[in-house]
């Protein structure tokens, strides 16, 4: 359970802890040791749902993502509150009954289905040109009107809408930070009225475009705020091409968007323009992965998973013949989630989180039990 920025703590925190220092904070006892979870949730898929009447994106690059995602939640996700989710009435006669909507339990905002998928307090979003992974700060669950999962999901939703409605090209590049700033402002508005809901979330996203060279090359516009991570791997050489850098206020308190936080996309988000190649793998991950697996373990896991899926997809297995690259990337994402989950639930494992905590003078052993969200995307060129 990470630390949210609280109104009564903020001024004192900034005076006491300059941002250039790493400082110790109290860690709840439930986080001292990894533990098994009895009601954990798992899931996965290829693309996250979009409304049936959704308009196609204004801009389409000559490259696209074949993507899949996998999820592990340390506890079941809380239902979204009204007005985002209107549960059906117990009586057809009640004047406020929503029985006519009872078959569609998908949450909405401003009359639109909320895009993305919730995983505990995390949220992921997958489309053919954009992937994102947001990590809501779970400590808000213990506070009145707190709902970090709502914040993480709404940020992803509005961010994707801004990207789809934007017009950009190799000569007029996109501005993902500006799109994220608008998404942040729309989320603040949506969680302020008619009811107020508090929360904060980290965010990271990768938008796929192209350069103006001949022949053209795929370009990634990678945006980061907080400690979720975008990692670009080249399976052919088993090397990391790019990774985002974590942003912290202090230990276990990353930069975050939302209630009482001084962070904003305009002032704190970092955007990198990265040239990649076809067949490169782009990962969007919450810290449930990077707190439990070192970088070399992630790279090894991804490359082994891709090799295994490729070997199984050589035509000898008739079931595999109907699978797509997206199915393969879902398999790759699931393998990485399984590896991170194994460490997260091991009270004696060595983990990056344990190492960071020891550096801070804290006695913590084992993995870090957390929501684990992975989007794995393979860069491909469009045909025709």
TrEMBL record:
Keywords on record: Hydrolase, Magnesium, Manganese, Metal-binding, Protein phosphatase
Names of required cofactors: Mg(2+); Mn(2+)
Reaction catalyzed: O-phospho-L-seryl-[protein] + H2O = L-seryl-[protein] + phosphate; O-phospho-L-threonyl-[protein] + H2O = L-threonyl-[protein] + phosphate
InterPro entries in alphabetical order: PPM-type-like_dom_sf, PPTC7
GO MF, any single term: protein serine/threonine phosphatase activity
Domain of life: Eukaryota
Protein name: Protein phosphatase
Organism, as annotated: Decorospora gaudefroyi
